[in-house]
Known about the structure:
- 58% of the residues lie in helices and 8% in strands.
- The protein is an alpha/beta fold.
- It is flat.
Amino acid sequence: MFExxxxxxSSSFKKLRGNNVITNENIKDSLKEIRMSLxxxxxxxxxxxxxxxxxxxxxxxQEVIKSISPSEQFIKIFNDELVKLLGEKTEPLNIKVSPPAxxxxxxxxxxxxxxxAAKLAKYxxxxxxxxxxxxxxDIYRPAAIxxxxxxxxxxxxxxxxxxxxxxxxxxxxxFNYSYNNGFDTLIIDTAGRLxxxxxxxxxxxxxKKEIKVHETILVIDSMIGQEAINVAKEFDQEVVIxxxxxxxxxxxxxxxxxxxxxxxxxxxxxxYGFGEKLDMLDIFHPDRMASRILGMGDxxxxxxxxxxxxxxVEAEKLTDKFKKNEFDFxxxxxxxxxxxxxGSLKSTLSMIPGLGKLSDDEEAIKKANIELKRTLAIIDxxxxxxxxxxxxxxxxxxxxxxxxxxxxxxxxxxxxxxxLQMRKMSKNMGKFKKKSxxxxxxx
Length: 443
């Protein structure tokens, strides 16, 4: 989403390289580019004005630290101000209350409320070890109720059914059901409209009047730009929201909503969605998001993602085999599957410093994904013995594997060559490590 902003900001940083000090003259063009890139990204003009003024004030008001270059110091200042703009600190849900904690999802029709309600339930169940349940208060769209019911079944979270046509009764009954059946969290999916009107506002007010709602979360489609800010302001004025959840942050949009929401509404962005899968929801960390916008990756999130996705025992076994030069095609397959669990190749690359640009190369990503699928198809066409001992792969076996995987013998030869190169590399790494220990007298 932030591709264009990141590109232009990176370009503005380059203009400062080679300067010994930060002056009004040498940051003038950089600030101009930053201002234009943010406005083009549909960031609110008040937000842009404030951000640029603070960056300029801080940049010119500080002495240049001798150990770093002016361009590095400018980036640090920009990063700090961007973090403040995005909320400065991570804001958790206010659900440490006497159960059940009630979370009400609000927002316009099409913002992704229903899917997001299920994503949040899955997140709370798996990451926070809570015991949530779901209810749909969208009496106007039977399809929305059925959708949430199906999603609830997929994530194995109870869905509370109710035939009532009264929204307040549905929510009140759901609250009592949650309380009586030991659920500590009730997530309510409310009805959306194409635009904010008195009906939707009165409905939300009635629910909050009847039961204690601990978190009213406004779900905003990141792709609607400035309109998202108007929606957030109006919802907060009429209903009072505790936080914002941005959806479709992986979309091909300008990103202004994400950068403007906290500053304009004063309400924190608590979560963001970045794909259609039900596990593609994450806590919004202002510092990590600022780092990604500035093209510096997000290593912390990448490590957390890997820890959640990869079985630690299996990872340790694989590492040990790699060190001892004992890994085979079974291990190769396991490594690829573990990587796939972390999500799309595109999202993974975007978190790695220096490789964010590659994540925007759709053609390269497409080729890499095809290559991974071809590799798995080839390994799956091998017998267990062949996977365990690559030395068995003679000409006739390679022809059989090629036929079974829908590839060519050349593809098999290429994969075996890469595999042997990996084994050679692991062997050399082991020798180097041993030699280093001897030289440094490590125990």
